[in-house]
Write a structure and sequence with these properties.
Layout: H1 6-13, E1 36-38, E2 44-46, H2 90-101
Antiparallel strand pairs: 1-2
Length: 104
């Protein structure tokens, strides 16, 4: 049977572990951590000492680098004239889908 060459095998060993490569007790998670706890009645209680808060450093108004989105952009709102449900209308969605994709 074929075996990978030694340099290729070394490169494969450096990759991150997945849950398929180890036994049943390995859980990778997402690194987000918990912000509270679940109650026995199905609710969720936020524990505020666990919630992350981000402090903006002082003096960022004169900072030379800019974000990827312009600061001059105003919030845009959709206009749904003559539709009582606005953007949640199923008829409007289907009409737009048919206009863009054609009939099947």
């Amino acid at each position: 049977m074929f075996k990978p060459t030694q340099p290729l095998f070394r490169r494969l060993r450096r990759l991150a572990l997945t849950t398929k490569q180890v036994n049943g007790g390995y859980y990778k998670g997402t690194g987000t951590g918990s912000t509270g706890r679940h109650t026995k009645h199905g609710g969720f209680i936020i524990e505020w000492h666990k919630v992350r808060t981000y402090v903006v450093p002082p003096g960022l108004k004169d900072f030379r680098l800019t974000p990827f989105v312009t600061r001059k952009m105003r919030p845009t709102r959709g206009s749904f004239d003559g539709d009582s449900k606005g953007g949640l209308s199923g008829a409007r969605y289907l009409a737009r889908w048919k206009a863009e994709n054609g009939e099947d």
